[in-house]
Design goal:
Layout (H helix, E strand, L loop, with lengths): L5 H15 L18 H19 L19 H15 L9 E4 L2 E4 H22 L8 H14 L24 H8 L7
Antiparallel strand pairs: 1-2
Helix pairs in contact: 1-3, 1-4, 2-3, 2-4, 4-5, 4-6, 5-6
Length: 193
């Protein structure tokens, strides 16, 4: 894989930012497809994971960064997410970061591979949040195609028995599922309704 994932990651963060902007305070305690997260916790994880990849892009130890952003007031999620996604753009601006070996939760990899994995994570959590909010916006199918390709490449079913892995084994996609639905099913997620 020799693509530059930065434009895709930027598009993914723009899509998340648009979705986060739709969150109403009464939705924050609502359920998500991630059974252990409510919407507030999912937002915290999305922002915290984004901060982690910013630290990785800057050459820091992303593993030392908790993948949750704590202390965000309920009316500040959009601003908090915009801050961390801006950090990512700055930290990955140097082309050399794409070839540098970095350490991420799934191991050591060149930056371009690590950032591609974070595209997959961002797009997956976009689906999670969209499902939680009742699908308020149309989602970019090209991002889902890229993320599904990455998921199929790095997460074969036989590796999913690892308790450290945040994805369950694949489940059947609902009939007529779009690419986001197929991605979610491949990662073991089910729609809320």
């Amino acid at each position: 894989m020799n693509i530059d994932p930065r434009p895709l990651y930027t598009r993914a963060t723009e899509q998340i930012a648009a979705l986060v902007a739709t969150v109403r305070p009464e939705q924050l305690a609502g359920p998500t497809p991630c059974a252990e997260f409510d919407v507030r916790t999912l937002l915290s994880h999305i922002a915290g994971g984004t901060r982690r990849i910013a630290v990785v892009g800057a050459g820091g130890d992303g593993m030392a960064v908790r993948p949750f952003l704590d202390g965000v007031e309920d009316d500040r999620w959009s601003a908090a997410y915009d801050e961390v996604r801006t950090e990512v753009q700055k930290s990955w601006a140097d082309d050399a970061r794409l070839e540098a070996l970095v350490t991420v939760p799934w191991g050591e990899a060149p930056g371009r591979i690590a950032l591609s994995g974070y595209v997959m994570e961002a797009v997956t959590h976009t689906w999670d949040l969209s499902e939680s909010l009742g699908r308020p916006l149309a989602l970019d199918p090209e991002l889902a195609e890229f993320a599904l390709g990455i998921a199929r490449r790095v997460l074969p079913d036989e590796r999913r028995d690892d308790e450290e892995l945040p994805f369950d084994s694949a489940v059947p996609a609902p009939e007529g599922a779009d690419t986001y639905g197929r991605l979610a099913a491949y990662l073991g997620r089910r729609p809320l309704s």
